[in-house]
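To whoever picks this up:

The parser on our side crashed when reading a file containing two proteins. I've narrowed it down to the boundary between the first structure block and the second sequence. Both blocks are reproduced below exactly, byte for byte. First block:
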Amino acid sequence: MEKVALLKCTDYDVDNIEKKLREGFELLGGDSFLKELIPENSKVLLKPNFLSVIEKGSPVITHYAVFEAVVRIVKEYSSNIVFGDSPGSGDTKKAAEKSGLMEVAERYGVRFVDFNDQTHVELKNPIMYKFWNIAKAPYEADVVITLPKLKTHAMMYYTGAVKNQFGCVPGSQKAAWHTKLPDAVNFSKMLLDLNSVVKTSFAILDGIIAMEGNGPRNGTPKKMDTIIMGKCLTAVDSTAVRLIGYDNVLSIPILKVAHDTKWGAVMPEEIEILGEKVENMKCKNFKLSRNAKVINFVSPSLNNFVASLTAPNPVVIEEKCIGCRKCSEVCPEKPKVISFVKHNNKVIPKWNYSNCIRCFCCQELCPKGAIITKNKQLSKMLGLK
């Protein structure tokens, strides 16, 4: 049975966060647990979530106070700590500086590493993909500690401990994965294989201020007062989705794939929750990105076909759109599925939905939150809205 520490933390005071994290590690086994997690002379990589060049303190990205609290603890077990990411858009170093993490890192002697340098590796016994091009830094680290935010996600329903390692795929290669794997199930298989390649060691999920609604960038901050910690990434994510309203954890694509492939613990009976009780920490009226009612047919191909028919469409909120064309720039499809038309004296995006793969990169990376997802009539008829 996998152990997960569920903690209540009500603010971003770094001393308070550090205290809570130490409580979590104590629940998981204390000093002996940490010594096993971070062996002597280990090279430790901290993997935050940058997404893009975002202002410090934003619920979109890893909070600098959480990062600092983690650094304080890890420094007691290793003097060789680095951090890095490859955001979906924007310069990585600028993202690190804007987020406030660079300033923290410099104070503590933590080195910034760019994820542009990559290596070609082979994964034994993959779910789907055997050969990989990934960033060298996380692959070569002895210990990878992921520091995700708890957020909604239009394609994957939710993003957290497993999804955060997509940042280990260098730069523009992310677009290629979206094109290759347009459905959430196969994308989930890829993400699980990616975490096997990276050998992600531990997750500290920040849900003190989470994001609901139009996530992972343009949703609404939601106070949840929650930190979730554990070695098993799927156990951490399973606990998180239960807190935001997904009572059936198998309705989340990545958890369903993990369960079916026995990649990691997913079901509540497989997970021992230490600290707070899930029932006491559940967030009322959390606005989900997508309700995940499952329709299961015997044929997987039929499941995929129905999923493609019921997946929501990206649509523009005209009054918010500034015509920056970022949506077209980040669209992974060639030729682009987004064109631009004049309407009410503005230039706004228009989608060719027949060619759209519903990766929602446009919605995810829109700088003004001008793109949302809208359910189709069929999904409403089937009760999937």
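<<boundary where parser fails>>
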Amino acid sequence: MIPLATLYYLLCYAWQRLPEPAVLQATEAAPFHRPLELLTQMLLHAAGQLLRTGLPLAFSTNEQETKQLRGRIELVPTLSRGLLPQGRAVCTFDELSPNQPLHQVLAGTLVALAPHPDLPLALRRLVSQLRRRLPASVQPLAPSAAVFAALRRHRLASAQAFLLHICELIYKTSLPAPAAGSRGRFADFRRDERLMARLFEQAVRNFYRREQRQYRVFTETIAWQAEAAHAPDLALLPTMLTDTTLESPSRKIILDTKYYAAALRPRYDQQRLISPHLYQLYAYLQNLRPDPGQALEGILLYPAATAAVDVRYALGGHPVRIVTLDLHQPWPGIAANLLGLIAT
């Protein structure tokens, strides 16, 4: 299982945010034992930064019974309540307020975390303190899948998007009770291979976007080099979408990340490469048409778990490398290994 310090770097790169020295120092001062403790510390730091700069305000619609007319008078509730003889009316009006959905979800997450039994007492106290620092007008909103889906459609600034990612991961892994028939939660989400595979892929791709300038980094849809008697039949072919493509005028690298317990599997008493992964990369290389003068190559990247692997082949005339990345070493070593993979 990867160290929490490495997990912190992966989360930051996956969510396009540079690691913060303050969080790393807090991790070293009071070593965390569970991912929830790390996520809580990240939430405290990110929300604290947002509060220091001031919560962004936006217009929200309010309905209020008042003696002073504001905005639009709502006649139906005003008349039904018999307010006019009292010199009152129900009015709706817009006003600038921090009571926005993201801040409400933050408040709701803090409310849920404050009594969480898996958090140390010191962290729970910090969570409660941060909740009290939020403006009184911010009403807590209980986190839910629907709430996060709606918030993801907003065009949030980088700091706000980072905060949303943290709240959503806390919700998915630590807050809700598993629904009937669901696959449930992992007490330590580092054991959730599907979740970690997505984070690993995003972290590696965004690492290359931030830490090197030689290649353009993107995901790419590859068209099948196929023909059919009936053109509509071509639409039945599965989509080929790369995890990461790195492209320069002279070189194009298709890099597929695979978050598996091992890069090799036993077969007939021998260790073998995982054939579907190799077939997939081979299909990408055979169907991709690089620009003139571009050398095309492929990389399969696994986290090192049981054994280190670094083998090279020429498949279909293209260089292919299958290699593991040791996630238990300090981050500078991980960064150096990643940059070394694409060095010319």
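After patching the parser it read the second block fine. The CA atoms of residues 7 and 247 lie 28 Å apart. The first helix runs from residue 4 to 14.
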